[in-house]
Specification:
The complex is a heterodimer of chains A (397) and B (295). Chain A has 397 residues and is an alpha/beta fold. Chain A contains 13 helices and ten strands. In chain A, strand 1 and strand 2 form a beta hairpin. The longest helix of chain A is centred in the last third of the chain and has 33 residues. The relative contact order of chain B is 0.14. In chain B, strand 1 and strand 2 form a beta hairpin. The N and C termini of chain B lie far apart (46 Å). The chains are: A alpha/beta (397), B alpha/beta (295).
């Protein structure tokens, strides 16, 4: 009603809020959701990625009221707007009811572009009905730019968190937004090697991500900080289709493959009952199977335990074409053999030489591994031969 | 790595979207409708009819439906109503309890798994009593708006409106009386959506009973004097659309709140909270009664 609007205006604080549609910017100081242990990023960003953006929240305007995309950059396509509308959390849609709660979503859009969103509560809705208004800032990235930026939605979300802004929802008129430059954060500070429970969680989460099923992970503080490093070891091709949510209430229609929940999960339990969605809580003793890629998983586990996970990340980053589990297993075997070369005696080198002398390569990556093994075997033979000759010469004197 | 909520080949078919779900499913994996409706309808041995309550966000769908169900449960207007399942009572309980505490109920989220659904067996006592099974979901206004703007954004809404045996279209009479065009445009959009959905020929008019309910009559009491006249004068686009395309339409006025106060909260800045001081129900049952007579 008019007089209600008048009353609202009358008590509104006089300080002029930030209006990003006019090019102003600000960083929203969202306290971290107590349950989520986000990874820490140190140092300067390595660059920026230019993204389309949209704001999904509830605010009145001449074109309507309630939750919708209230403002977006002109490059956002119609089907992308539809998908963001369908997936974004609405009223009270975060796991926690604390006012400083935040949530994250990442998913691929029908256009093939990738969407990453950051949600937080933004006070009461203009109608003053119960519950907290959710404000979602979504960015949409082209496929190539996504890959060039590292194709890690968790790291890109960290960049988004550092530059997200809130438009003034009291204005009742929202100009289109411009594109946004999101900083590309450097990889999070991680322990040089994983062990014990953390290593187990890492491998289990990787199995959940790589398998066919959808998973709900309960216990954010235990697992979200692993997520960024986890994404780094997923083949690049699979990362382009990754869908996950953190701290956002669960609903089947959001269609996320990996959902991190915290707090009261009864509604999610009700929604998933009778559906092919599995639950996993770190430490609950349940093992996540990914039998198809068991050899690849074993190699990742060994490398993570040895503090060499960056080697796996380098390989994963090069897997641009779809990489099914058998291919990953073959790469795992090649990687193991490449490691064996370094500590092989003459007999084992001879065996590896014979094995890879005419081994067929089913992909470019396999071909490169085989070439590396052949080259290293030859180098190791030469080293051993030289060492033997040297020893013989020393013996002759 | 697309999500896999693969529907099972044998199981229970959702009443709303007709996708197969496992016997254990509580909600449909496709549209989030409660599977209890299916189980209850199987137990009754007859298919329920669906009455949709549609309207813009904040028009008062939840409050209207909550009070309607409560009145039916209290045998108002010679009606006898039997809720099928505890879930059918949640909405009226929420609405009545909130209003009893002088609060409006919380906003309905867009997530369909959090909507209230009511499944009632209803009979109007008289010379020829006839029992009707009715399913009435409390949809979020934003989901409706998104669906009518971009069809198939929320398939559950498309399915619900397709299946509806009757529609209650709620409009904010207070806004319309103030000269706001938004209620008129929203109503026009939703009727246009329904009209397009059934894709009738140019000379065929929609026969599904549609009750246009002018809500929040406490803001403009004159609406009760002549609801059709109010629509023709203040919601002329809607009036013309009804005349052109809807054969079975009637106009009603309704009000729930007797008097309203406004409060500022010490905790929440920038918001004036409307406080329903008491309820004075007017015109809640009449649109529903008209729909039932048409079925």
């Amino acid at each position: 009603m008019d007089y209600r609007s008048a009353l609202n205006r009358a008590i509104r604080p006089s300080a002029r809020p930030i209006d990003v549609s006019r090019g102003e910017s600000s960083t929203v100081q969202t306290a971290e959701f107590p349950g989520i242990a986000w990874a820490e990023h140190a140092g300067q960003a390595s660059g920026v990625v230019t993204c389309e953006q949209a704001v999904f929240t509830s605010a009145p305007s001449p074109m309507g009221a309630g939750y919708r995309i209230v403002s977006a950059s002109p490059g956002l396509k119609a089907d992308e707007r539809t998908e963001i509308t369908r997936r974004s959390p609405s009223h009270n849609g975060l796991c926690s009811r604390q006012i400083d709660a935040v949530g994250m979503m990442a998913y691929v859009l029908p256009s093939g572009r990738y969407c990453i969103s950051h949600s937080h509560y933004a006070g009461a809705e203009h109608t003053a009905r119960g519950g907290q208004r959710v404000y979602t800032h979504a960015i949409v990235i082209d496929t190539d730019a996504y890959r060039q930026a590292g194709a890690n939605p968790v790291r890109l979300h960290a960049g988004l968190r550092s530059c997200t802004h809130t438009i003034d929802l009291s204005r009742r008129h929202f100009d289109p937004l411009a594109t946004i430059d999101v900083p590309i954060m450097r990889p999070a500070l991680r322990p040089s090697r994983l062990s014990g429970e953390r290593l187990g969680q890492f491998v289990q989460l990787l199995a959940a991500t790589m398998g066919e099923r959808s998973w709900i992970v309960v216990g954010l503080s235990q697992s979200v900080s692993l997520l960024e490093g986890l994404v780094d070891v997923i083949p690049l091709s699979a990362r382009a289709a990754l869908s996950l949510s953190v701290g956002v209430s669960y609903t089947l229609t959001r269609q996320v493959r990996l959902a991190f929940l915290e707090g009261d999960c009864r509604e999610a339990q009700r929604a998933t009952r009778g559906h092919d969605v599995r639950w996993w809580q770190p430490g609950d003793g349940q093992l996540i199977d990914w039998e198809d890629g068991a050899e690849w998983l074993a190699v990742v586990r060994d490398y993570a335990a040895a503090g060499r996970i960056s080697r796996i990340s380098q390989i994963a980053e090069r897997l641009v074409a779809p990489t099914p589990a058998p291919t990953l297993n073959r790469l795992a075997r090649l990687l193991r053999d490449l490691d064996r070369v370094e500590r092989a005696d003459e007999q084992l080198l001879a065996e590896l030489h014979e094995k890879y002398a005419s081994a067929p390569a089913l992909s470019t990556e396999e071909g490169e591994f085989i070439a590396q093994i052949q080259s290293r075997v030859a180098a190791r033979f030469a080293e051993i031969s030289e060492r033997n000759q040297s020893r013989d010469r020393e013996g002759a004197y | 790595m697309s999500p896999s909520y693969a529907p099972e080949t044998t199981g229970t078919e959702c009443l709303i979207c007709h996708v197969q779900n496992s016997q254990d499913a509580v909600l449909c994996g496709n549209c989030s409708a409660p599977m209890a409706i299916v189980h209850d309808s199987i137990a009754q041995g007859r298919s329920p009819q669906l009455v949709s309550i549609v309207g813009e966000s904040n028009v008062g769908k939840t409050v209207y439906l909550g009070f309607l169900l409560d009145m039916l449960a209290q045998r108002a207007g010679d009606f006898e109503a039997v809720p099928k399942g505890a879930y059918s009572i949640d909405l009226q309980q929420t609405v009545i309890n909130h209003l009893a505490h002088r609060l409006f109920p919380p906003k309905t989220p867009m997530e369909a798994n959090q909507w209230y659904w009511a499944y009632y067996q209803i009979c109007k006592r008289g010379r020829h009593p006839k029992w009707i099974d009715l399913v009435m979901p409390d949809m979020a206004g934003e989901s409706l708006a998104a669906e009518i703007t971009t069809p198939k954004t929320f398939r559950v809404i498309h399915s619900l409106l397709t299946m509806s045996a009757g529609t209650l279209l709620l409009i904010d009479a207070g806004q319309a009386a103030n000269g706001a065009t938004q209620p008129d445009f929203f109503a026009l959009k939703i009727l246009s959506y329904i009209d397009t959905m059934f894709a009738g020929k140019r000379n065929e008019r929609m026969r599904t009973p549609t009750a246009v309910v002018l809500c929040k009559g406490d803001y403009c009491p004159e609406v009760f004097d002549d609801p059709p006249g109010f629509v023709e004068a203040n919601l002329n686009r809607l009036w013309n659309m009804c005349e052109s395309r809807f054969e079975n339409v009637a106009f009603f006025a309704a009000s729930v709140v007797g008097s309203l106060g406004y409060a500022t909260s010490g905790d929440v800045d920038d918001v004036v909270v409307p406080v329903p001081l008491h309820t004075a129900l007017q015109g809640i049952l009449e649109p529903f009664e008209w729909i039932i007579d048409q079925l």
